[in-house]
């Protein structure tokens, strides 16, 4: 899209400016693509902890600025900001222990700085929350009204409890400063630019299958997840962020795919879509690993007419070439 076609801040001649924290990560980089495609000027703030410069290396637009910045520190000064997307946070359960304090602070202090940036500029904010706020859910599927079952002192707490705090802080800012803040509770999402060494199940299984190694099933594989392809997820995030204030300000929406599958069944799909001799091996189930997970997406579907359109199988087929390339390059 040319500069002339970029969305303008109403009443001005200014192109809309989006700040995206975590924009060099998996989801953040796809969000950046979508915003640039729609003509926004975009500034990425990322510390490259789990993200990579290569995730944005394909971008040629002069409307993108990337700054190495840790969101635990106050944001740089900007002249104008129209929307802040707070996507920064490591999200792999393996990091919940190895990077516990960093994660807890990214979703507390980092959220504070994102909200302060939005407040300073009278901008809209979108906070990336997670299905992990529901913990080992006692309600299935999980709707936005379910308050969750989270272990405050468990190994996942630096992530799930800090995401809960992040949401609580957003609500506090909304009420105290009458800001326009929206929250997206993101369910398991996969696609190109996920780090093959990330430790989450789709990158692990794809990497193992492509290398002909055994797929590592944690526990007996009866636990379920519902996997969303990245393009669907980004469309959902944008639907929430772009909606008029009357229908979205101050609200929270689940975003994800409702196609629920056990981890054991996921191995069958992977072994079907990857040409491999891999078998399976069983490892202990991590503590507090949620037994079931499926989003109730009736709220986002009824309010914004959004629903996922890419099946797990199709999404995996679109993801495999990226993993093949990464395994060759690395
Ligand atoms: P990712 O690790 O690929 O991306 C996170 C990005 O944030 C990386 O680029 C990383 O370098 C950056 N980052 C982390 N801490 C930072 C800090 N302190 N300062 C600056 N940058 C920092 O993970 P992702 O899967 O793309 O997740 C993006 C967001 O979506 C996260 O907030 C995550 O909690 C949320 N989310 C993702 C999923 C999923 O399935 N992918 C599910 C639920 C929620
Ligand atoms: N898992 C697995 N093998 C792996 C990685 C993960 O069986 O190599 C399981 C994990 O225990 C969980 C599910 O797959 O039950 C999804 O894990 P992931 O880390 O992708 O995300 P989570 O939903 O736990 O945040």
Automatic annotation (TrEMBL):
Its Gene Ontology molecular function terms?
NAD+ binding; UDP-glucuronate decarboxylase activity
Q: Which GO terms describe its cellular component?
A: cytoplasm
> Is Manganese a UniProt keyword of this protein?
no
Q: Which InterPro entries match?
A: Epimerase_deHydtase, NAD(P)-bd_dom_sf, UXS-like
> Carries keyword Transcription regulation?
no
Question: Which compartment or compartments is the protein found in?
Answer: Golgi apparatus membrane; Golgi apparatus, Golgi stack membrane
Q: How does it sit in the membrane?
A: Single-pass type II membrane protein
Q: Which cofactor does it need?
A: NAD(+)
Which keywords appear in this protein's UniProt record, sorted alphabetically?
A: Decarboxylase, Glycoprotein, Golgi apparatus, Lyase, Membrane, NAD, Signal-anchor, Transmembrane, Transmembrane helix
* Chief location category: Golgi
A Gene Ontology biological process noted in the UniProt record is: UDP-D-xylose biosynthetic process
Stretches assigned to the NAD-dependent epimerase/dehydratase domain: 19-256
Q: What is this protein called?
A: UDP-glucose 4-epimerase
């Amino acid at each position: 899209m040319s500069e002339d076609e970029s969305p303008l801040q109403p009443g001005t001649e200014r192109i809309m400016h989006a700040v995206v924290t975590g924009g060099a990560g998996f989801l953040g980089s796809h969000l950046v693509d979508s915003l640039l495609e729609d003509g926004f000027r975009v500034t990425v703030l990322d510390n490259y902890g789990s993200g990579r410069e290569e995730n944005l290396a394909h971008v040629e637009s002069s409307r993108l600025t990337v700054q190495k910045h840790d969101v635990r520190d106050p944001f740089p000064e900007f002249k104008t900001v129209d929307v802040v997307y707070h996507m920064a946070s490591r999200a792999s359960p393996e990091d919940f222990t190895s990077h516990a304090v960093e994660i807890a602070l990214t979703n507390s202090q980092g959220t504070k700085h994102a909200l302060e940036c939005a407040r300073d500029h009278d901008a809209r904010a979108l906070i990336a929350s997670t299905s992990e706020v529901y913990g080992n859910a006692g309600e299935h599927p999980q709707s936005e009204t379910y308050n969750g079952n989270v272990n405050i002192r468990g190994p996942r707490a630096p992530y799930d409890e800090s995401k809960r705090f992040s949401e609580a802080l957003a609500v506090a800012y909304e009420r105290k400063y009458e800001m326009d803040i929206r929250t997206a509770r993101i369910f398991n999402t996969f696609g190109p630019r996920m780090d093959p060494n990330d430790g989450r199940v789709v990158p692990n299984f794809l990497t193992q299958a492509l290398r002909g190694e055994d797929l590592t099933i944690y526990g007996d594989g009866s636990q379920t997840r519902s996997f969303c392809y990245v393009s669907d997820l980004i469309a959902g995030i944008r639907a929430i962020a772009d909606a008029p204030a009357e229908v979205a300000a101050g609200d929270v929406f689940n975003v994800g795919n409702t196609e629920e599958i056990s981890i054991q069944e996921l191995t069958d799909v992977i072994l079907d879509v990857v040409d491999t001799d891999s078998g399976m091996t069983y490892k202990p189930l991590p503590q507090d690993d949620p037994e079931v997970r499926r989003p109730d997406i009736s709220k986002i579907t009824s309010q914004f007419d959004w629903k996922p359109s890419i099946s797990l199988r199709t999404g995996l087929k679109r993801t495999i070439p990226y993993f093949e390339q990464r395994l060759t390059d690395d």
